Amino acid sequence: MNINLLIWRNLKKNIKNYYLYVFALAFSSSLYFAFVTLQFDPALDEASGTVKGAAAIRAASVLLIVIVAVFLLFANNLFIKRRGQEIGLFQLIGMTKGQIFRLLTVENFLLYFGSLMIGIFLGFLSSRFVLMILFKLISIDELAELQFSSQALVQTLIVFAVIYLLIMANNLFFIHRQSILSLFKVKATTEGTVKRVTVVEIVIGILGLCFIATGYYVSSQLFSGDFTSVNELFLAMIFILGSVIIGTYLFFRGSITFIGNVIRKGKGGYLNITDVLSLSSIMFRMKSNALLLTVITTVSALAIGLLSLSYIQFYSAEKSAFERVQADFSTNSEKEANMLTEAFTDHNIAYTEETMEIVVATFNMADMIHLSVDPESAGVDVQKMESTVVSDKDVDGLDVKPNEVFFTGWPAMYDPIMDVNENSSIVMHTTANEYKLDLVGLNDEPIIPFYFTFGGSPTAVVDDTVYKQLQNALNDDLQTIFKDQGNRFYKINLENQDDLVRANDLYDTLDFERNTWSLQLEFQGVKEFIGLTLFITGFLGLTFLITSGCIIYFKQMDEGEEEKNGYTILRKLGYTQNDLLKGICVKQFFTFGIPLILSLFHSYFAVKSGWFFFGTEMMTPTIIVMVIYTVLFSIFGLLAVLHYKKVIKEAL
Amino acid sequence: MNILEAHKIHKTYGSRGNKQEVLKGLDLQIKQGEFVSIMGASGSGKTTLLNILSTIDHLSSGSISIEGKEMTKMKERQLAEFRKHYLGFIFQDYNLLDTLTVKENILLPLSIKKVSKNEANKRFSDIASELGIEDLANKYPSEISGGQKQRTSAARAFIHEPSIIFADEPTGALDSKSASDLLNKLTRLNETRKSTIVMVTHDPVAASYCSRVIFIKDGQIYTQLNKGDEKRQDFFKDIMKTQAILGGVQNEH
């Protein structure tokens, strides 16, 4: 039997063991190939060109390489350790380390590039599907076409060849470092031996919980006004990050053992089968995998957090101020409004036009608003706040008395930086007089188009009589864009939404000087950008999810192998396969569940501390993201249970 | 009263064309309270016999009943149930779960049977003091010696008061001091608790602690020796002689 035959036999035998490695490799390469294909796709050029997303895509592809490389190296490490005995045997029968390395290299080459080809093929097939999702997200009505990009192929091959070299270097290092004897023992030494729980560990365990709790607490205070300057804010963020990550590490290192030990103490040595398979095993395993689990948890938290934020953005954009203001076109110029309506009439587009009067005034809101941030750093003077004002006769279903005021379009963004006293009054200034108005309420429904709200600030609604007096004593310096146009703006709505495309084409041909907007076109740009962001974070998130799921699964395969002996004992003692499987399910629930739940918590607190910068709705999008992530992650837990089922069956 | 009866057990391994008959119609009776050892050369089928008697392996034909219960027809689940209530095990390599403490390991069989916690603690302290391991209760297997591990394993076999205990080379991995220590303890437990023990060994010294020794050769019972009122040393000499005639690998004791 020559060495080539040996390689071939080895490969055949190992493919069964390696199927998940092959899967992981094929999967990551197909992901990467699909992504790079998109990067080179001319259709995307248009999309990314308009939103300047090219840089984002490139950055994401670099990040993708890093994740894939680390993941493949890790997987390779696990698998070569499993083969320590075999390598030891080859050395024992007189093979040199060089020969063994050659054997592994050739074997790996076939396996690696074989799966790579499969991956690229799958990536090619799925890239159209992926492109379709992207188009859907950025609402481009184009048909995704299947295009094979040789540029993408070359880039993928180069990247994966470099990763292959890294893996080989890693294998070379592994073979050279080990003696024959230690190779035989590799399996036994991968996990620390079981020792008694020491006081140090208890302290570590409690510390870990404290660190995490502190991080969470500081994160909830982040934007509540305790940290006023940018520097302080930055330091606080670093502190949160550090505290939570260290806390997570200590949690895996000690807290699990500590909590497990408390539970076990309570049982007084009388453990049932579920405890035996889950509790006692997890207590010791988690500790030796602390670093790995910390990385997985942090990365997952990052992925869930980013996904949630971009989905919040996407979700909020859908129902943001843009869309809730039912004005397809808006302008503050009578001339331009006429240009537009004439064009519409010429082309038989039915529309309605609405005119609203609007003024800007200053208010003393010291009584109503309590700022929780430093007024100077926030650039807010509550004694002299500017706000748009409209008359209640222009607002349907709202009637305020002469001494009252109502605020509409109150942004959610304000919530964390100020408290509103609902039973208070404000003072409105005109050049002639001051009006004391009682606050009767506020809502988040905007009534004027976004462009006239000065970046989404609220609008005061006052009684018509008060409004008339205000008009007569206007402070001209405040009127800005409304000044020359008689303090009016025009909302033009299409009667039939099917005309929207034609209307927008007309809008494009007209030559506007002043502020005239098409909701559709303005919104499109924003949506494209948000959609692209969601797409990229989704793509990376999926990669994170699958790599971390695979890593835990690999670890479980290893553990199953090591604990097989224990299953034999337990089955001899009279436990049925079902008894054992129940215990294993609980174990998987914790092995996958603890990192998952921890990362869900991390990301929840991260999202909670700053979501209002991204959108108006937090709970629904965040929960949707978390549920999807949990479901996908659970699939790996299920796979692990199926693997264990096989191991248990073979154990007796 | 016979606690275990086996009739014409056959066991063949391998598929058609390459069949190997390991047990060839073996008959065996073991009485309540006996301490029996099974001896034989490597490949004589003694471990296979033990595996079959202890329901871990299936037999090809024949019948086995323990306490009058026929087990050859039982399903996997019933067998597990059976092992749970009627059988105890001691293995050569201890087979303790290294993530559990000594006490947790010993109490395992009770937790399957859902014995109350107080009762479990009482039984634990009884058996642990008899085997001299009560001080080790909260230690992990990695922290104790081989002899202590084997006594833990023995305690686990005895704690749920099974009808019959199977021991597979229990002294195989122990030094001679720990071995004789363990065998003395087993003998004592056999006497005080009236438990039935079936032990497979190839060590004549270990066998000499038993009340009866069954020799197996090529899948059949070759001969049996009864200790009767003999002293252990004399019984040991008898065993040595038989073993010499048996022609197995000579032991140098």
Automatic annotation (TrEMBL), chain A:
The chain crosses the membrane at residues 18-35, 55-75, 109-134, 154-176, 197-218, 233-252, 290-312, 529-554, 589-607, 619-642. Residues 60-169 form the ABC3 transporter permease C-terminal domain. InterPro entries: ABC-4_Integral_Memb_Prot, ABC3_permease_C, ABC_permease_BceB-typ. The keyword Transport applies. Keywords: Cell membrane, Membrane, Transmembrane, Transmembrane helix, Transport. The keyword Transmembrane helix applies. Coiled coil: none annotated. It is found in: Cell membrane. This is ABC transporter permease. It comes from Cytobacillus stercorigallinarum.
Automatic annotation (TrEMBL), chain B:
This is ABC transporter ATP-binding protein. The keyword Mitochondrion does not apply. Residues 4-243 form the ABC transporter domain. PANTHER family: ALPHA-D-RIBOSE 1-METHYLPHOSPHONATE 5-TRIPHOSPHATE SYNTHASE SUBUNIT PHNL, LIPOPROTEIN-RELEASING SYSTEM ATP-BINDING PROTEIN LOLD. It holds the Pfam family ABC_tran. Keywords: ATP-binding, Nucleotide-binding, Transport. GO terms for molecular function: ATP binding. Belongs to the ABC transporter superfamily. SUPFAM superfamilies: P-loop containing nucleoside triphosphate hydrolases.
